[in-house]
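Q: Could you predict the 3D structure of Glycylpeptide N-tetradecanoyltransferase?
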Amino acid sequence: MADHDSNSNSLLENQTPNPDGNSASENESDASIDSLARQVQESLSLAKRHKFWETQPVGQFKDLGDSSLPEGPIEPPTPLSEVKQEPYNLPNLYEWITCDMETTEMCTEVYNLLSNNYVEDDDNMFRFNYSKEFLHWALRPPGHYKSWHIGVRVKSSKKLVAFITGVPARLRVRDSIVQMAEINFLCVHKKLRSKRLAPVMIKEVTRRVHLENIWQAAYTAGVVLPTPISTCQYWHRSLNPKKLIDVGFSRLGARMTMSRTIKLYKLPESTVTPGFRKMELHDVPAVTRLLRNYLLQFLVAPDLDENDVEHWLLPKEDVVDSFLVESPETHEITDFCSFYTLPSSILGHPSHSILKAAYSYYNVSTKTPLLQLMNDALIMAKHKDYDVFNALDVMQNDSFLKELKFGPGDGKLHYYLYNYRIKHVLRPSELGLVLL
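A: Sure. Here are the predicted structure tokens for Glycylpeptide N-tetradecanoyltransferase:
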């Protein structure tokens, strides 16, 4: 449910420094619980939505800070024979379908639904525009289940009006490897938002996940629900400042001219790290080792094998880009960086229709300073005509954001686990997970 408000105007020039995420103390953790509690108070008007979540096995707001509750599954698995075998009931005019993302027709239908109805920023200026190639990639990882790609059609016209998906994943939570579903792309047609379709869709995808004997899930949302395991912030690095200002994504800073702004964000013509190159198929084993080793330091992170790395990180044009550093002397793979492509439609602008955005994915630095590695990633993104490079403050990203002229956006992204309790709200720097 990547319901993220990450397209929000980034106000790139008016940056207020954030406290250094690496020196977080217990107080900061308490502060994050306090601010979460405040957000909860503010979102109590969402009681209708929470009525649903209060019936689900998720961390509840009332339990925040109760360290006596054990970590791990909230409810035990049900015997498979007791899992509901029939789909949940939809309102009379609608029917469930399983979306076969192998077919061009289905991919096109899903693309059209999402590109017209999926996540917009608060000011309705930008809307995510996931490409068909991206959807094909995101929904077909190793071991995926077709039955987890769920659509709702109008019976009479056969028009696709809602969509939700799950893909299987292994997540490590501290020392436990947990089989999970990653839930994403929950989208209901704008004209049907009052029909309360979302809860029944969430229940249906949950039922289908349970049928595969999987009892936990991970998802993200731009809204506060019971109860985030972590709350992260999007940061934006301007690559094409003139266009970003023209379309209202960012604005000219106080006492800044356009020419000074363009100069401020100018990047070198070529990368500086010796041995920096595009990842290739034969690099999969080395990249897997590098990444697995790196992710061990985070409290929640994916448990990736070579098949996963090949699927998620081998470069695909306009979907995912990955680069690595191969030592010119030893030929050892020492560093890695990657980003995925998620454009947004620019709504109602006379001359620009697409904002081309790169999103930081997984980055590992062992020999090359992370700052230098990410600057090279920015240079590659600029070469490929991206307008903006976005990054969450997860993992070690906080260490390069300000230095590389990223500005904080006004979009927050909340991470959730379904049927799995974590005792403390995690700092973004304790999170080693990026969901698409």
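Q: Anything worth pointing out?
A: Confidence is low (pLDDT under 50) at residues 1-26.
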